[in-house]
Design a protein that fits this description.
2 helices; 0% strand
């Protein structure tokens, strides 16, 4: 049986996971001080976000949340 998920359901799951990840990260790390530390922290966050997103399958039938229209 195909599992259907709406855009709102997908967004809710994504938001919940991202909140849990960011809360855990905030509790375990200190604020970066130098530009290099800021860059590395941003890279780590991007990797964590990518890992979180990859856990949720998004079928091609799900429509995007935007529309392109000719002017």
């Amino acid at each position: 049986m195909a599992h259907k998920i709406t855009r709102r359901g997908w967004a809710a799951r994504l938001t919940t996971s991202a909140l849990a990840t960011s809360t855990l990260a905030a509790q375990t790390t200190t604020a970066p001080e130098t530009a290099e530390e800021l860059l590395e922290a941003a890279r780590r966050q991007a990797r964590r976000n990518l890992e979180t997103l990859s856990k949720f399958p998004l079928p091609m039938a799900v429509e995007p949340s935007y529309r392109f229209e000719a002017a």
